[in-house]
Amino acid sequence: MVVITDTPIDPSTTYGLISNKTAGSVVLHYAVVKKDGGSGAPTDSIEYRFEEGAEEELDAIVAELLLKWKLEDVLLVRREGCLHVGDIISLVAASSPNSEDAFAACRHGIARLKKMTTVCKRERLAE
Amino acid sequence: MVVITDTPIDPSTTYGLISNKTAGSVVLHYAVVKKDGGSGAPTDSIEYRFEEGAEEELDAIVAELLLKWKLEDVLLVRREGCLHVGDIISLVAASSPNSEDAFAACRHGIARLKKMTTVCKRERLAE
Amino acid sequence: MEITVKLFAMFRVGRFAAVTKRYEPGATPANITSELNIPEKEVGIVLVNSRHAKLDHRLLDGDTLSLFPLVGGG
Amino acid sequence: MEITVKLFAMFRVGRFAAVTKRYEPGATPANITSELNIPEKEVGIVLVNSRHAKLDHRLLDGDTLSLFPLVGGG
Fold first, then answer.
1. Per the domain annotation, does D74 fall within a domain?
2. Which residue, among B10, B30, B59, has the nearest Cα to D8 in the 3D structure?
3. What is the pLDDT of residues C39-64, one digit of tens each?
4. C38: nearest Cα among C64, C63, C17, C7
5. Contacts of B38 (CB under 8 A, 6+ apart)
6. Into how many domains does chain D fold?
C-alpha cells in the first residue's frame, strides 16, 4: 500500500495497514525530522512537495521490494507539506515470514525513498 | 523501557513509548505467531511464561544495545500467556539519529530475546 | 466496471503507461494481461490499489491495477 | 525517598544484586555510584525504570536505578 498525505502520519493506525496473515515479522521504520540535519545549523522545518507520478514511483518501489525479498506486504507512507522537528517524514513497513527479509526490504525501501525523483525537499534552518 | 505483560501488546500505543527527541529514525519489530512455525505441523498456540529475573534480563539487553550502538532509546515488550496465530509475541524498538544504528540494535535485540534464559516457551500444534 | 491499468518498464513498449477502461464484472489481472498480450511468466509483480495481489484476484469497480515485469521492476 | 538499586555484572562483586534504600530527595545516580565506590568512568549504562538516563538524572521516590559496567554489560 502506498499513501501520500498532507495530514500528520498517525503511528497509532499504521500496524493495522500491513497485512500479516502468514508473516511472523513486521518491521516499521519511521523517519522523523531531527534538529540536527547535518547541515551545521539546526533545522527549523522541511517542506516536501510531490510531483505528478509520485504514486507510480512509490508503486514501483513496492514492486521492487516484493520482487527482491520474500514479503507478504509492503507499506510506504510519505508526508507532504511543511514539517517541523519531531514530525514523521515517512514510514516504510514490511511483513515477512522471516525477520531477515523484512529488515532488508525495509532498509532498501528507505534508501529508495531518499532517491525519489518526484519529490521536492526544501529545508529551512533555524536562525 | 521494558515491559512484560499478560494483556495483548497494542501496536497503537507503542510509538509513543519510545523517546525520540534527537532521533531521526525509529525502528520497530513485531514478532507475531505464525501458522507455520517450522515444526512441520501448523501451530495452534504458544505459551510463554517468565521466571523471576526476567525484567533484569531485559534490562541487561537494553543496556547491551545502548552500549553497542548510538541510540536514544530502546523499548522491549514481551507478552506472557497463551498466544494464538496473529498475536504479537514481542516488540523490539530503537530510536537513533542514524537508521543504521536503529536497525542493527533492533536486529540484535531480537536475537537476544530469542536466547533469554528466564522464559519458558511451550508450543501446541494444531490437530 | 471501470479499471485503471498502469504498466511499468518494458510493459509500456508498444502499449501505454496508464489507461482507464471498462471490463466485465469479475475480471482478474490474468484476464487483462491476456488481453494485453503479456505472457503470465513475464509478470513479476501485480499490485491492486498499490497492494500485493495475485493474477486471479477478483477486481472491483474503480480498482487500479499495476503490472510490473519480472526484470527491471522500476 | 526510596530507591531500588540494581547492580549488574562485575558491579555486584563485593556489593549486592539489588537493594531498596532511603536516599535524600534530589539524589542522582552519580550520588549513588559515589556512595557505592563505583568510579564514574566504569559506569557504562544507567537505566532509571528501564530507561536510558544520565548520571545527573534527578531520581524520584520509588524509582529503580540499574547500573551496568562499561564491559560485559550482560
1. no
2. B59
3. 999 999 999 999 999 999 999 999 99
4. C7
5. none
6. 1
The helix or strand, by DSSP H or E, that contains position A64, with its residue range, turns out to be helix A54-68
Task: Determine, yes or no, domain membership for C74.
Answer: no
CB contact under 8 A, A23 and B33: no
Q: Residues of A with CB below 8 A from B107's CB?
A: 99, 103
C-alpha cell at C52: 500485493
Interface of A with C (CB under 8 A): 1-2, 19, 55-56, 58-64, 66-67, 71-74
Question: The complex's ipTM?
Answer: 0.89
- Distance in angstroms (rounded) separating the CA atoms of residues C34 and C25: 16
pLDDT tens by residue, B32-45: 999 877 667 888 89
- Measured CA distances, B24 to A88, A110, B19, B100, D44 (Å): 9, 12, 11, 11, 24
Does any domain span residue D16?
yes
**Rounded-to-integer distance, Cα A58 and Cα D15, Å:** 57
